Amino acid sequence: MKKRSLAFLLALVLACGLMLGGCSSDGSADVGESGSEGDGAADGERVLTIASPYAIGSLTPWISNSDGDRYVLGNVYEALIESNTGSEDGVEYVPAIAESWEYTDDTTLVFKIRENVYWQTEGNDLFDEKVQVTAHDVKAVFDFVLDENNASTEWGDLYPIIESVEATDDFTFTVRTKQPSAILLNEISGVLIFPIKAIEEDFDLTQQPVGTGAFIFSEYRVDDSVTLTPNPDYRVTPNVDKVVIEIVPDKAVAAIALQNGEVDIVPQILTTDLEAVAADEDLKLIPNSVGWYRYIGFNCSNEIFQDLRVRQAISMAIDFESITETLSGNDFGAQLAVDAYGGGVPPEFEGSDIEAWKAVYEYNPDRAQTLLEDAGWTKGSDGIYEKDGQKLSFAIKCPTNDQNRVKLGEMAATYLKTIGVDASAQPTEWATMTADIAAGNTEMFVMGGGSVVGGMNMLFHSVNTQGTSHNVFYTDETLDTMLEEAYATIDDDARIALLKEAAMRALENKVHAGGYFEYVQIGMNKRVTDFEKSPTLWYSLCNDYRNVGVDGQ
After folding, report:
1. Can you tell me whether residue 232 is helix, strand or coil?
2. Region at 440 (left for phi over 0; alpha for psi -120 to 50; beta for the rest)
3. pTM flag (> 0.85)
4. 515 has a pLDDT exceeding 60
5. Regarding beta strands 444-448 and 337-339, do their DSSP bridges make them parallel or antiparallel, or are they unpaired?
6. Which UniProt keywords apply (predicted)?
7. Looking at the predicted structure, is the pLDDT value of residue 208 above 60?
8. Element spanning 479, H or E
C-alpha cells in the first residue's frame, strides 16, 4: 500500500497541472475513462498502456516534431516501408504499404503497393466506406511533401535526393533519384501516407488523424493521454483491444506506475530506478541497442555565437567527460552513456569515429578564457565577460521531460560561470522547447536525436535542420556538399570515409558544444508480448513483423 500511495500522490500532483487543459479530439471537455488498466478498462479488455515522457507537438502527419508525435502517428498511419531496429543484422527495412521493392538501376526504385490497404473508415467523417489505397494516392503524398510550400519536416531530407515520382499503374510506384543514394530507403520510411482528399476537402487531420494503420485515433486529452483502438479493416488483427499512451513527463512517476502495474511500458527508466525495476519479478529491462545522441546546441543566428572562437571557448570550458560520468554512474552495473567528445554519430552508425574525436577533445578553462579575450571579450568588475556593453549572458534551454538533459544544462552552466560566462539552465516544457528551437527562440539548448541512418543529414545539413528541433541556424556549404557526396556514394568504405570527414568538420566548427550517447533501459511488464522483436515505439505496434499484445487480462 505504501508504494501505491506514493504513486497516487505523485500522479495526483502531475494531474493537477495537466488535467485542467484536457479535451477530446474535437476540443470539447471530456471526463471519460482514461484507458489505463486500473481506470476504465472493461473486464477482459486487453489494454496496453504506455507512459510517454513526451508531450504531443503536432498530430499533422507531414509535420512531426518529436518521438511523442511519432508514437501516435506511427500507429495510425503507415509509410511505404518501416525500419526494424530489432534486426540482428542492424537496421532492416520491412514491408508496410509496399509489399516489395527493387532497384531497376542505381537511380530507380520501384515499389509494389499491396492490394489490401484501405483508408480507415471508423471514427472519422472523411470516409464512410472502404476506399482502396493505390499508387496514385502514394504519388499525391510525395508530391505534397516534395513541395517546399507545404513545410513538411521530410522535405529537407527528400528534395536533394528525389528527381521524380510516378504511379506507373494502380499498384506500382516509382521513385527516380538525382544520383545514387545510400539513404533513400531510410528517408522514404519517414514519409507517412495520408489521404490527399483531406487537403482537398479542408478536413483537419491534426484534430482527427486518418490513415491506413492498425489503430484508429480515438481520443486525445491534451497533455494527458491518447487512446487508440484497432482498425477492423487492417490486414493484421491487433493483439490488444486498446492502446493508451499516457503523457508522463516525470520519469520517476512513470517508473513507480510501472512497478504498480498501472502502465506496461516505460521508454526510459532513470538510473535511480533501475535497481527497483530489475528486482520486480513482474518486470524486465530491455536495453536500447543504439546510443541516443544528447547534445548542447548553439543558435548560430545569435550574434554571440557567430564567432567560432566563442563557440570553441564555450565547448572547451565544459568538462563533458565528467558530466557523462556523473549522469551515467550507477550501482546497477549498466553502461548508460558514452562520451561523444564533440562528435554527433553514435558508434552503431556510419561516420562515427570516437577515438579520433577523443584525440582532439580538450577541456581547458584557461584556454577558453584566452579565446574569449582574443574575440574581444573582457571581464567586467563583476567578473562576467562583456563586449561593447553587452554581457556574455545567455540561457541554455533544457527539456523538462528528461532530467538527465536538465542536469546536462545545469552542469554546463556551472562550468561556464566559473570562467566568467553568465549562463543559466532554463528548463522548458517539451512541445514549447521544440517549437522554440525550430523558430530560433533560443540561445543555447539541450536536445537529442539524429541516431538513425543518415543522422548527420538531420543534424548538420543546413537545409535539413531548418524548421526542426535541431535548428542551429548554421550554414556551411562545404559541409553540406560533403554530406551530399557521402550519401550519394554507394561504395561502403568510400562512404564511411567521407562521413567521418564530414563529422570531423562539424566537430571542428562547433556546430554543437558537445554531448554524449545515452543507452537507455526500457522498462516493461512481462505480460507484454512481441515488443522485444523490435523494441521501439517509433513504428506501429501491429504490422507484419510484430504484433504487440498483453497477456493475463
Report:
1. coil
2. left
3. no
4. yes
5. unpaired
6. Signal
7. yes
8. helix 477-487
Residue whose grid cell is 552508425: 349
Q: What is the C-alpha separation between 109 and 102, in angstroms, rounded?
A: 6
16: helix, coil or strand?
helix
CA distance 304 to 292: 29
What does the pLDDT look like over 49-99, one tens digit per residue?
999 999 898 999 999 768 899 999 999 999 999 987 655 555 789 999 999
Angle at 528 (CA atoms; ends 527, 533), nearest 5 degrees: 135
The residues pairing with 50 across neighbouring beta strands, listed in sequence order, are 245, 265
pLDDT digits (tens, 9 = 90+) for 109-165: 999 999 999 999 998 999 999 999 999 999 999 999 999 999 998 998 898 899 999
**Rounded to whole angstroms, how far apart are CA atoms 324 and 342?**
12
Please state, in angstroms and rounded to a whole number, the distance separating the CA atoms of residues 78 and 68.
Answer: 16
* In contact, 111 and 186? CB cutoff 8 Å: no
Q: Per-residue confidence at 36, pLDDT binned at 50, 70, 90?
A: very low
Q: How far is CA 324 from CA 319, 394, 407, 470, 518, in A?
A: 9, 23, 10, 21, 9
Distance (Å, whole) CA 177 – CA 490: 13
Residue type, 17: G
* CB of 344 closer than 8 Å to CB of 506: yes
Q: Fill in the amino acid letter for 176.
A: R
Q: Is 449 left (phi over 0), alpha (psi -120 to 50) or beta?
A: left
- The neighbouring-strand residues paired with 528 are 550
Q: Shortest CA distance to 434 belongs to which of 70, 72, 65, 73? A: 65
CB 398 within 8 A of CB 425: yes
